[in-house]
Design a protein that fits this description.
The chain has a domain of 89 residues: Flavocytochrome C3, Chain A (Flavocytochrome C3, Chain A, domain 2, Orthogonal Bundle), CATH 1.10.1130. It contains 3 helices and 2 strands, in the order H-E-H-H-E. Strands 1-2 form a two-stranded antiparallel sheet. It is elongated.
Length: 146
């Protein structure tokens, strides 16, 4: 009799045994992988306190106000009602960066380019929360946008 099948079976035994136990993974805490974990609740957004320092070069600026319920569709972008070049002077909001008007081919458009139209894809609100995973990251701090 060959030892090869026995060696393979012995190597697979721990995998087979652990498959019967519920598995847990990282941020899911004690929720098994087979179950859907509930979405975490929204954290309170910090009150408007001006523009924050950036943590790294080319970081998208943080949003210093609530954006829950903002509608962004093909025909409507709630962010642009205050930040567009036609509105920012009257609203006092920061103007959309000129980089947001360049399309993927490098052509400057008269309106915000489609690849930059979904603002909340890059710009996030500010909240005072504990990081979900411990880390020792320290931002640069000196790159504050004016």
């Amino acid at each position: 009799m060959s030892l090869k099948p026995l060696i393979i079976a012995a190597a697979l035994l721990p995998l087979w045994a652990s498959a019967a136990e519920p598995q847990h993974f990282g941020l899911r805490a004690d929720i098994p992988l087979e179950q859907t974990s509930p979405a975490p609740g929204l954290k309170p957004v910090l009150k408007e306190s001006g523009r924050k320092s950036l943590n790294y070069v080319n970081q998208p600026p943080l949003v210093p106000h609530k954006v829950q319920g903002y509608q962004i569709t093909q025909s409507t972008n709630r962010c642009l009602q205050c930040h567009d070049v036609d509105n920012y002077l009257t609203t006092g909001a920061p103007r959309v960066s000129p980089t947001h008007f360049t399309d993927r081919d490098g052509v400057v458009q008269p309106q915000v380019a489609p690849r930059r139209y979904l603002c909340l894809q890059c710009h996030v609100t500010q909240a005072d929360v504990t990081p979900p995973v411990a880390n020792d990251f320290t931002g640069l701090g000196q790159f504050a946008k004016d």
